[in-house]
């Protein structure tokens, strides 16, 4: 079977069987880890005897047409004691079981596909497109030694479209790995995204470059007259607005103190004139 490197989802059937066998082995051997080989025949019979949820049949039923109660039911009879059966009738029965099992598997596959693609956006690339390549840890161990190392590389060019889920990429001799990638490890490269860092695989931002290219100027706030100092400025209270408002309040307090001093001097002069 052909599948992309480090993408076990491609051969999902084998992965499910391996997971099930691992669970059965752990239940049988428990702490006797060296006895797992002795348990394999019993484990194999138990797995083939169980009815699978997808096909609605056990592997024994699909192959032999019946589900044996014990391994002895599968042993061939001696030639002298072999009974005659209607071979054509049994062949038709097994054929019907195969058709029903195939239909059950197709229905189950469609159900799984519908659930898996519910929130997934289909991505199609063409030959010549520029893409980012996700540096999967299992496939690029040297490039993922540190958490701070880049998790994508590119851009690289699509050289061949195998199908809608697999593509060949020109790695330019940079990596000694297979050039075939699953579509989940690729993302489109946009020419002007180098500074914006909009690539979904790339983490972090490029604040330093943005700071160099664009210097933020403090917001200009119109000066308030002392009579209008009590008015609350519209808009969000930024640092510049807060600093300007503080200066305006201090200026207003100074203005009020000066007017109070002038009023006291005027009252003192008036008292002296009346006393004279």
Give structural attributes.
276 residues; alpha+beta; SH3 type barrels; 3 domains; five-stranded antiparallel sheet; 5 strands
Provide a concise account of the structure shown.
This is Integrase catalytic domain-containing protein. The protein is 41% helix and 10% strand. It is an alpha+beta fold.
Structure description:
Residues 88-122 form a coiled coil. Residues 1-67 form the Integrase catalytic domain. A hairpin with a 2-residue loop joins strand 2 (152-163) and strand 3. The chain is elongated, with a radius of gyration of 39 Å. 41% of the residues lie in helices and 10% in strands. The chain has 276 residues and is α+β, with helices and mostly antiparallel strands. Residues 208-216 have low confidence and may be disordered. The chain has a five-stranded antiparallel β-sheet, with no helix packed on it. It has three domains: 12-74 and 86-116, no CATH class; 130-207, SH3 type barrels; 217-252, no CATH class. It is built from six helices and five strands.
């Amino acid at each position: 079977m052909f599948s992309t490197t480090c993408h076990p989802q491609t051969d999902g059937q084998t992965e499910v069987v391996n997971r099930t066998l691992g669970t059965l082995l752990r239940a049988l051997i428990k702490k006797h880890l060296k006895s797992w080989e002795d348990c394999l025949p019993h484990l194999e019979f138990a797995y083939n005897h169980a009815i699978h949820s997808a096909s609605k049949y056990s592997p024994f039923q699909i192959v032999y047409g019946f589900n044996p109660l014990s391994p002895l039911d599968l042993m061939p009879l001696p030639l002298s004691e072999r009974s005659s059966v209607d071979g054509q009738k049994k062949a038709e029965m097994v054929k019907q079981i195969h058709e029903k099992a195939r239909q059950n598997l197709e229905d189950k596959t469609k159900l799984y596909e519908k659930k898996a693609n519910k929130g997934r956006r289909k991505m199609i690339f063409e030959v010549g497109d520029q893409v980012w390549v996700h540096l999967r840890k299992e496939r690029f161990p040297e490039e993922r030694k540190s958490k701070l190392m880049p998790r994508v590389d590119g851009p690289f060019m699509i050289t061949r479209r195998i199908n809608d889920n697999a593509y060949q990429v020109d790695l330019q001799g940079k990596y000694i790995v297979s050039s075939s990638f699953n579509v989940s490890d690729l993302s489109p490269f946009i020419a002007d995204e180098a500074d914006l860092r909009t690539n979904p695989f790339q983490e972090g931002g490029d604040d330093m470059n943005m700071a160099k290219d664009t210097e933020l100027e403090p917001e200009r706030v119109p000066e308030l007259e002392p009579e209008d100092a009590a008015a609350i400025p519209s808009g969000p209270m930024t640092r510049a607005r807060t600093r300007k408002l503080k200066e305006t309040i201090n200026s207003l307090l100074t203005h009020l103190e000066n007017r109070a001093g002038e009023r006291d001097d005027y009252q003192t002069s008036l008292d002296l004139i009346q006393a004279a």
